[in-house]
Amino acid sequence: MAIKKHNLIEKRNVLNEVRQNNMTLQEIRFFSIYLSKINARDPSTRVVKFPLEDFQKIMEFGRLNIRQLENTTDSLLQKIVKVRSEDGGYTAFQLFKRCKVFKDETEQWYIEIDAHDDALPLMFEFKKEYFTYELWNALRLKSSNQLRMYEILKQYEKVGSRKVSVKELRELLGIAPTEYPRWNNFKVRVLDACQQALEESTDIKFTYKLIRTGRGGKITGLEFFISKNENYTDQLTLEEFIDLQPDNIEVSAQDKRETFFQNEDLEFLAGACENEFSEKEMQVLFDLVKQQVPYDGDYPNGLPCARYDYLAQQYHNLNLQANKRKITNRFAYLKKIIDMEKN
After folding, report:
1. pTM of the prediction?
2. Is the domain defined by 1-135+237-251 classed in CATH 1.10.10.10?
3. Which residues are bridge partners to 265 per DSSP?
4. Does the pLDDT at position 328 exceed 90?
């Protein structure tokens, strides 16, 4: 894969305002990489090809698992975005329409992905407002909230500020109404965490003030103040990012059969935790996840994918904490993280 030193992303404002509440960090990151590799003024570049090994590292697979690969590509093909209209309606469509995994003439495996026809106007028609940023900003961020916050504010960098309601911000960040229902939780785990991450890892930084309404002074919105981050210069190319990811472990067909769980639902969910935990431990986590992502919810990509995405986010939070402190029992700590979500 030929990598340019500077991978520029050109993104239409209307595409940046779509609701992406069913996309994980890895999927949003992959979409950013896809946008960096197309020519936004040439729809014939809509098909993008990656070496399969690079794709696995971008998606942060813990090891090569064919079923996990199939589930991931299926999930990408099912991703739905919604574009709101001024009259209160919306248009919903898929981002991608085809994914192909194949060997070339040199016997190297590749993955090829093609944008959905309905998504082409948002990716390639640049007659209206758009903004640009270097891909390295997206590669440094460690959660979907951080990456979306970066894009939401980067769009308004030249303006210098942006006002948004709390409800709209949660929708833009892809945070469900049941996530962080308490303001203090939302402030610490989303706003303050994003503020620190952007200042440490991207070319912009921000401050914010609260907008209160009513006699009780209820917090209903925020005003962000965006400025250039003069102190951050540690840029990272896609090639360098891929090189930094751990190598995937090739396993034989026999090894794959031996590592499969008896329960296929648990085996699928185990991929969200990079297959770190036993089947017995996954059963405990599954029971907890069912409480957070119940049967009666509205899940565009289906209940299994919604639970997978939820657990993947909590597992990512576990790794963030592990980078800050020594965790002797990762399974118990992950249970604690999920339990805290219920409060």
Report:
1. 0.65
2. yes
3. none
4. no
